[in-house]
Amino acid sequence: MIPFPTTLRRPPWGNMLVLAMLFGGLWIWLTRVPADTPSPAMTAEMVPQRDFIAPDFELPTLDGASVRLSELRGKPVIVNFWATWCPPCRAEMPALQRIAQRYEQQGLTVILVNQGESPGRVRDFLNSLGITLPTLLDDGRAAQVYRVRGLPTTVFVRPDGRIEDLITGGPLTEPFLEEKVKAMLPGG
User: Can you name the residues that pair with 113 across neighbouring β-strands?
Assistant: First the structure.
C-alpha cells in the first residue's frame, strides 16, 4: 500500500502568486477613488476628459464683468474656444447661437472663449455675424488648462459639472450640437 500524504504542499511559485494577488487587491482597495469624489485638481500630467469635473476658470467678458465656470453648475454648459481668424469657428457660430436660443428655457448656457484677441476685434466679428452669446476673453490660461491644441475646441459640461464630451475641430453642425445638448439635459 502507498502512503497518502496528510498535507498537500503548494509549489513555491504558487505561494508567490497568492501573495501577489493579495497585495494587489489590497493596493487597489486602498487607493480607490469613490465615484462621488470630484476629480483631483488639474496637474500638468492631467487632461480634461469625459466624466471628470470640468476645470474651473474665471475670465473677463467683453463688457468688463467676469464669469466663473463653476458658478454655472446646475445648468448644462457649452464652452467654445475660438478665434476670429479660424474659418471653422466662423462657420459654427450661427449654429451655436440657434442652439443657445432653442434650449435657453431648459437652462443651457453657451459661452464663447476667444483666444487672445482684442475686445474691439472680437466685438466687430460677433456683430458682423449677429452673435449675441456671452463672450469671454482668454489670455491663454483657460486654453492651457483645457489643453486646447486646435480651434475650435468645444467642451460640453453637464449640470453636475462633469464633462460630457470634448471635441477639437469643427465646424460642429446644428444636429450634432442638438444631440449633445439633449444628452446633457435631465432625462437625456
Answer: 81, 136
For 107-143, what is each residue's pLDDT tens digit? 999 999 999 999 999 999 999 999 999 999 999 999 9
Residue 184 sits at φ, ψ, to 5 deg, of -90, -20
Identity at 31, one-letter amino acid code: T
The CATH number fitting domain 58-184, selected from 3.30.70.2660, 3.40.30.10, 1.10.443.10, 1.10.287.1770: 3.40.30.10
Is pLDDT above 70 for 158? yes
Cell matching residue 131 = 452673435
Asked whether the beta carbons of 168 and 89 are under 8 A apart, the reply is no
For residue 133, CA distances in Å to 22, 29, 35, 93, 146 come to 55, 46, 34, 9, 21
